[in-house]
Amino acid sequence: MSDPHYPVLASTPIYHGRILSLRKDDVRMSDGTVAVREVVEHPGAVAIVALQDDGQVVLVNQYRHPVRTFLYELPAGLLDMPGEVPLEAARRELFEETGLAAQEWSVLLDLYTSPGMTDEVIRIYLARGISESADRFQREDEEITMTTVRLPLDDAVARVQSGQITNAAAVAGICATVLARDAQWRPLRPTDAPWLGEQGRAAS
Asked: Rounded CA gap, 161 and 165, in Å?
């Protein structure tokens, strides 16, 4: 998508990987100059705030190679399966990473993760009515060492504030859940609400 105020004069592919791609755009700035912008192309993702009836939120602890450490995160995954809608991806990821299912789903927020360098957008759902799935699940790669933790929602917020939870989607999702809870869940959107990922794909 090219903003008419910042037209893309040329776009050059640099690298195409299994998940990510990198391109170089020549962009006309508002003062008439031309600037080079490197853009990491990303398929998009979903994440889930799984909130149990007892007020505990389900998090995973997973190794992340780029930062060389384990992070507390929301169950999440890529939108990299052709034709899979975000809600179904969220159901699948919740099951694959935690073995859980949910009866009630709502859109909590949409988030550009790092718009200065990537077009990645993530849709974060609130899932309630949590239960153990009757199906079996198997983890792969970094997920083999993944562990699942449950924290009272307010404790999770405290861990955000103390710097123990630093994953961007987890921070945003946890804080947004508290705001939604305190507003009697009125800010929640239906699962078919339009979102940034659709806009980006329609314009590409």
From this structure: 8
Residues taking part in catalysis: 143
Say if residue 68 is exposed, middle or buried (CB neighbours under 10 Å; 0-12, 13-18, 19+).
Answer: exposed
State which residues form the domain around 24: 8-41
User: C-alpha angle 125/88/121, rounded to 5°?
Assistant: 50
Q: How many whole angstroms separate alpha carbon 104 and alpha carbon 202?
A: 28
Task: Tell me the pLDDT tens digit for each residue of 3-21.
Answer: 678 999 999 999 999 999 9
Could you tell me the pTM of the whole model?
0.90
Query: How many domains does the chain fold into?
Result: 2
3-class DSSP state for residue 191?
coil
Q: Do 94 and 24 share a domain, yes or no?
A: no
> 24 and 117 share a domain?
no
